[in-house]
Amino acid sequence: MQVTETVSDGLKRELKVTVARPEIEEKVDARLQEMKQRANIKGFRPGKVPVEHLRRLYGRSIMTEVLQQTISETSQQALAERDERPAQQPQINLPEDSEGVENIISGEADLEYTMSFEVIPDMELADLSKLDLEKEVAEVDEEDVEKSVQQLLESSATYEPKDGAAEEGDQLKVDFVGKIDGEPFEGGSAEDISVVIGKNQFIPGFEEGLVGAKPGEERTVDVTFPEEYGAEHLAGKHAQFDVKVKEVGAPKLPEADDEFAKNMGFESMDKLREAIRDKLSKELEQASRTKLKRQLLDELEKAHDFELPGSLVEQEFNELWRQTTQQMERAGKSFEDMETTEEDERERNRKLAERRVRLGLVLAEIGQRNDIEVTDEEMKRAMMDQARQYPGQEKQVIEYFQQNPSALIELRGPIFEEKVVDYALAMANVTEKPVSKDELFNMPEEEAA
């Protein structure tokens, strides 16, 4: 194999690889000899089929397989010998003229191809031990624990019939017929539907329109469907619902005692409150880590300045732009509606793509230099976590990941990133700053964007 560098421009590389014809022929002959031992062809005893006969029957297909295998092996060998780290899978190009390709396949010419790629840039990693980070931390407020208890009580409420007017929190059983311009519309009618005023489970204005209603009453409720409503033919439309109230029930909450806790699966109210407190604590810790991670990534971006592989940036930009345009289409929004322009939005996506690529390369480099790896056990747990999201289809989900290397890569990525972030945070100087819950969950507008 002979390798010649034909392009070296910044991060761009192009190599011309030549594999001599005798080397290819040797591989083809080896494949034919292997085939001879197991070929079962009419008119010949097993293992006695002449090689030339096999060459006439299968020579072209074998040559194609050998060439594909040779290109795969020699391209990897060329990269290894030059200690090149491609940013993406190299692009392989055979001779453009059909005659040249035919000469290679027919064994009349050496195998020649070019491989084009961009390399991962050399970078000097920042000293993680010199990063100063501030971690916002908040304590669980007992008032929030009691609010959660109250929400559980309300969700377990029963309703007792009442003759008076419906109020906030009451449950009504109703029939309704929805109309637009006086005509009923598809999916707008129902019978014996339960509506709890204040739960906000219906179109805005519907529950409010039932306040004061009494059993047996009929009334018309005016509403306007949200602009982003799922059914396009209803989005933004004004409608009237003719409602017949059949029953009105007042909520009756259970007592916050040990009996209630046992019905919820806990030994006592103390144990229930302990579980709620633990859940709220984990939510606060997650919010704290999220803000700390964002701060770490900001500092890493500031500390590293190197040329980015254009192919990676373009790939990331295209994905971001696809998501942006799809979201706008689903919401029925234009750039003008969003008080921006296509040019400004493209520029914003371009900068975000560059940030993601830069940080991705930095995190990958930190992981590689510090032997950070995702273990088989971690991958198994991740697959099981994904499978549990599809009850009854767990086996199919596991098989999907096992049969799709690209899906496994996507599954591995976030695990690897979190492990590298954990390593970087352990190395950095992190000081804690006590804040309120509201401050912890508050995110500046520019960060949210």
UniProtKB/TrEMBL annotation:
It catalyses: [protein]-peptidylproline (omega=180) = [protein]-peptidylproline (omega=0). It holds the Pfam family Trigger_N. The keyword Cell division applies. GO terms for biological process: 'de novo' cotranslational protein folding; cell division; protein transport; protein unfolding. Residues 74-99, 330-349 are annotated as: Disordered. One of its GO terms (cellular component) is cytoplasm. Its EC number is 5.2.1.8. It is found in: Cytoplasm. The keyword Isomerase applies. Involved in protein export. Acts as a chaperone by maintaining the newly synthesized protein in an open conformation. Functions as a peptidyl-prolyl cis-trans isomerase. HAMAP family: Trigger_factor_Tig. Consists of 3 domains; the N-terminus binds the ribosome, the middle domain has PPIase activity, while the C-terminus has intrinsic chaperone activity on its own. Belongs to the FKBP-type PPIase family. Tig subfamily. This is Trigger factor.
